[in-house]
Amino acid sequence: MDNSKFLKTVIVVLLIINIGTLAFMWKQMPGHGMPPPPQEIGRYLMHELKFTDEQVKQYEQLREEHRNSIDHLRRQSRNLHDAFFDLLSASPVDSSKVNELADSIVSLQKQIEISTYYHFQKVRTLCTPEQQQQFDKVIKDALAMMAPRPPGR
Fold it and tell me: Are 78 and 86 in contact (CB under 8 A)?
């Protein structure tokens, strides 16, 4: 009987370890390293910068304008990516078309980056001089939150 109780205890402990291992591995799967939604980053900035109610209103307006322009660029990028990978079925491969579409995709990504830069420049102008100092300290953290995390991190 004592041996049976020991074996049951070992089985329960091993079961708990296995569940913990599976949970850890599941958390590390791609998709779980996705950046938080923009609202979270916005809340982070507003909290860290201690925005007033008026600044919050202005920030939300800027964020909405930025989101609309970025959404438009991302739709264009998605269409270009689709056309780009549709070329996989072409025979023979039209190298000039591949390069043209790749250049267009890069150009759109550049527009997204520039738009994001100017968006944050506008956000910084909403700040008081003290908030601007804090902004300069926390913007890298906010941008890191926006960047996709590599798998396994």
Answer: no
